[in-house]
Design a protein that fits this description.
Helices cover about 30% and strands about 30% of the residues. It has 11 helices and 17 strands. The strands form 4 sheets. Strands 1, 5, 6, 7, 8, 9, 12, 15, 16 and 17 form a 10-stranded mixed β-sheet that branches. Strands 2-3-4 form a 3-stranded antiparallel β-sheet, with helices on one face. Strands 10-11 form a two-stranded antiparallel ribbon. This is Kinesin-like protein.
Amino acid sequence: SVSPSPPAIRVRPLTCTETRRGDRQVVHSLGDGTVHVSAARHDATFGFSTVFDAGASQEAVFEGSGMRQLVELAIDGFSCTVFAFGQTGSGKTYTLMGPLAQSETQPAAPGLLGLMQRSFACLLEQSRSRSSDLALSASYLEIYNEQVRDLLSPGPPCALPLRWSKTRGFYVENQLSVDFESLEAIADLLLQGSQRRRTSAHALNRHSSRSHALLTIHVRSRAVSVHPALGTACPSKQGTLCFVDLAGSERVKETGSSGELSVEANNINRSLLALGHCISLLAKPRGKRTHIPYRDSKLTRLLARSLGGSGITLMVACISPSSHCLSETLSTLHYASRARRVTTRP
């Protein structure tokens, strides 16, 4: 049997802006997976299986979160998903991808690479060491203002229809899937797609993601013939490894957003609210669950199988330790606590 990965919490360091402003550090990791939030009128302790404090390296997050096991399960034919959740500016994109400034001419230092690049390297390493013949491909989408757009297709991004079928569940019609065989090739696809993704600057984050992004690696192992005397042939398998970089939850009052930024924020918050509602209902015992409203947003439709279906899902909840972000931090921790109670049947 395979158990879903429990949520992991990552506390980023205080930023220079927060330090200059005189913000206090109100979040403390107490060890053994315990997070303590201490501020005026707020004193709460949360327990998780894994907590990474401000000093944790990118490698420590990869090895300690169970990400390596997810890669191996995807090769074995399971549907695996990792998604980063938290307030805008809490370190979600950094955790998944590493520094935002990286490009073809200015690659990130190896130690700063995120869960995505480390998973790609692990996947290709595993594919070389196993006797099965693996075929790898990738698709990269964003949900921007409730429109699904392909980040790998040439030309300006255009909206793609989201369909449903009994056999496939919810799926995106006409999305581009690109084959790759090397680490350089998939790194280029990640870079190409992320540069086309919608971002903007506001009061809390200079590079705020204005869309939810989903990069899916499709892993197909071809059937391997075995000598009759040694046993039967190994059947083909098809697994997926999906990375979901959610746009950050935000309060328009705090970010100073107006006009188009405000419309984007409202769409982001609406889809995150729908996701939270689905998680709250999934956290209830199976006998007490009502209908799960996956159709309430494009995001929950695309994550339906990952959240409550036959997949294995890892949630990385990113939080700021600053007193200025207290309410959003508490909201994220409560969110992760509910997600911890969700069980799936992979």
